[in-house]
UniProtKB/TrEMBL annotation:
Full protein name: Calcineurin-like phosphoesterase domain-containing protein
Keyword Hydrolase: yes
Organism listed in the record: Kangsaoukella pontilimi
One Pfam family this sequence matches: Metallophos
Repressor keyword on record: no
Length: 259
């Protein structure tokens, strides 16, 4: 199966006229995905759909991404409330179908579990007991399709103080205990840190999609080293994931983005 992974769109209610509007960036991304729709099975958006969780910003997300015409799954980011996103979900049957907090959906012989790792009004996250119990049940399920977890906060830390500080998560110890005990590979699709990267520990692999709206372009945490982006992020990711284990990740440059 082949999916497009996008994150951290930070949509606002209206164009504000300053710089590249998040709405314009989201439209360019959606048009790009729509142009390759026939080659895709699914779109995954790993949180921070909106910047301030206004209902109109969620409605804009829904309009822009519905036009792609593909199945979509999503979970809240910290900027989505998360209460604002749960409230908007109750107002739209289509959006409720996309939002998979504490829910498993199957696409292309894979199992996708959505977790809401966010707390109201803070960057740090948390996974409550319900979420961890559901995760443990899915990780230990026998004879089930390979598991892909979608959660905003990346669970695997990098050992880089600045990035790991963004990813503090209440419940992290139990989360990692569950993931490390898995007897099959687990893929995690995340956002939150606005710079794209992949990190692997044992059979757990976490892919962070970055952000095209507010890329994290500080030289931190790499000091004065040249390991830093030299241009704004203008790509999302395509994941080819085979149930047998092969997983190929390719950046897909968005055509139509303002330079
Ligand atoms: Fe974000």
């Amino acid at each position: 199966m082949r999916l497009a992974h996008v994150s951290d769109l930070h949509l606002v209610e209206h164009e504000d006229g300053a710089g590249a509007s998040p709405l314009a960036v989201a439209r360019a991304i959606a048009e790009d995905i729509a142009a390759i729709r026939d080659a895709l099975d699914l779109v995954v958006v790993s949180g921070d759909l909106t910047d301030r969780a206004e209902p109109a910003a969620f409605a804009a997300f829904e309009d822009i991404f519905a036009a792609i015409g593909l199945p979509l799954i999503t979970i809240p980011g910290n900027h989505d409330g998360p209460a604002g996103m749960h409230a908007y979900t109750a107002t739209s049957d289509r959006f409720a179908g996309w939002h998979i907090t504490n829910r498993v959906v199957e696409h292309g012989a894979l199992r996708f579990l959505g977790l809401d790792s966010c707390l109201q009004d803070t960057t740090e996250g948390a996974l409550d007991q319900d979420a961890l119990d559901i995760l443990e049940a899915e990780v230990t399920r026998r004879d089930a399709p390979p598991l892909v977890i979608v959660m905003h906060h990346p669970p695997l830390l990098l050992g880089l103080k600045r990035f790991d500080g963004f990813c503090e998560l209440e419940g992290h110890d139990r989360l990692m205990g569950i993931l490390r005990a898995a007897d099959a590979p687990i893929t995690v699709l995340s956002g939150h840190v606005h710079r794209p990267y992949t990190v692997q520990e044992g059979r757990i692999t976490c892919h962070v999609a970055g952000s095209m709206v507010a890329p994290y372009d500080s030289p931190l945490p790499f000091g004065d080293s040249p390991i830093r982006p030299t241009t704004p992020q203008d790509f999302y990711y395509i994941h080819d994931i085979e149930p047998g284990g092969a997983h190929v990740v390719t950046p897909q440059r968005v055509r139509g983005l303002a330079p």
